[in-house]
User: Fold this.
Amino acid sequence: MRVTLLRHAEVEERYKNCYNGHIDIGLSENGYLQARELAKELDTLKFDAVFCSDLRRAKETLRHSLHAQDANYTEKLREKSWGVHEGLSFDEIIAEGKVAYIDFLQWIEALDGEAHEEYVKRVEEFFFEFLPSLKKEDILVVTHAGVIRVLLSLINGITLEEAFGIKIENGSLTRVEIC
Assistant:
């Protein structure tokens, strides 16, 4: 099964480089332009199924593509929830003085919201149980950088810390094979 992963286009300026999680924010002006350009590229491709995070930034990224009419919107493709830390940057969280950064796993466990084990499990079940059960060959998934990184960690057998070091640009496509 071939899966084309699309990270949503650029978000509103205030939320760039922040832990946005489940905040339902929209695209920036540049993000809307990215989305229109992406639609042209996506519309040249054929997919047997289309799935999209139910958050606004993902839906707005897909909106101008012909594939939007066939999309299944799901919360299973949401970014990890960061609870009270959503919408804050790393520096803003550190400045609060309530959480210190010691190492990657300590950091993601210390922040509020969805437990990282549950997040990884959610991504794993969607891509390795649900999608294969559909018996489709080519699938488009519009989602968030964190989801893509978790999937890359699982596929490539690398740590989450290594995967989260991978740059995933807004509006970029990543293609993977899932057996």
About this structure: The mean pLDDT is 97. The first strand starts at residue 2 and ends at 7. The chain is about 40% helix and 15% strand.
